Amino acid sequence: MVKKPASDPTRRSEKSRRAIYDAALALVGEVGYPKTTIEGIAARAGVGKQTIYRWWSSKADVLLEAFLDLSGQTGGETYAIPDTGDLAADLKAVLRATVDELNDPRFERPSRALAAEGVVNEALGREFVTKLLDPSLRLYVERLRAAQAAGDVRPEVDPRIALELFVSPLAQRWLQHTAPISYEYTDTLVDYALHGLAPR
User: Fold this and answer.
1) In a structure prediction context, what are the per-residue pLDDT tens digits for the chain, which is 200 residues long?
2) Closest of 162, 65, 167, 175 to residue 115, by C-alpha
3) Could you give the CA distance from residue 92 to residue 129 in angstroms, rounded to a whole number?
4) Rounded to whole angstroms, how far apart are CA atoms 6 and 123?
5) Cα 99 off chain centre by
6) For the chain, first and last CA: distance in Å?
7) Which residues contact 109 (CB under 8 A, 6 or more apart)?
8) Three-state SS across the chain?
9) Counting Cβ atoms within 10 Å, is residue 63 exposed (0-12), middle (13-18) or buried (19+)?
10) Spacing of C-alpha 37 from chain mean position
11) CB-based burial label for 106 (10 Å; 0-12, 13-18, 19+)
């Protein structure tokens, strides 16, 4: 009699975790944050409710972790802003990667649902900013500070305010559907932010 190999609990746990991520993101994109429940996520993922509560204390925790994982799958791990010595080119490259992510259907629907809920749910909004947005914004601050050290940005400029000149318009256009987002659009944002509107 051939003995079956013992199943690997680590592998089984990772498979369950992946199923939970996928279920949570799919559900929040389909029914919105308020109607997404731990029970619904568990049923869709094919796991017991207790499995989810073993790893997370709330649906917000599940979704935020699923988003961090999704960012890795959709290219988020490449978001370290390059420093080639050409600030405009570096900013354009990372904003083009952001356009790709925002236009990716896997990211877009759940991201819109969470962003909308974050406006009315202050606690979720704070977590969304702290865990997902702030780490990305810190990368912009670091790149702008390096540009200041190189003499490419005026020393008195506040990098945290400066980054809003190109990040905030992109977020607003995407959230409000006022117009499509594209590489041409984000390239133009960088040019306007770095060179201003006055005649050169």
Assistant:
1) 545 555 455 555 889 999 999 999 999 888 888 899 999 999 999 999 999 999 998 888 898 888 888 876 544 444 578 999 999 999 999 999 999 988 988 888 888 888 887 888 888 888 888 888 888 899 999 999 999 999 999 999 999 999 999 999 999 999 888 899 999 999 999 999 999 887 76
2) 175
3) 23
4) 43
5) 11
6) 84
7) 28, 29, 30
8) CCCCCCCCHHHHHHHHHHHHHHHHHHHHHHHCCCCCCHHHHHHHHCCCHHHHHHHCCCHHHHHHHHHHHHHHHCCHHHCCCCCCCCHHHHHHHHHHHHHHHHCCHHHHHHHHHHHHHHHHCHHHHHHHHHHHHHHHHHHHHHHHHHHHHCCCCCCCCCHHHHCHHHHHHHHHHHHHCCCCCCHHHHHHHHHHHHHCCCCC
9) buried
10) 22
11) middle
Token digits of residue 191: 């040019």
Chain length of the chain? 200
Look up tokens 């498979």; give the residue.
Answer: 15
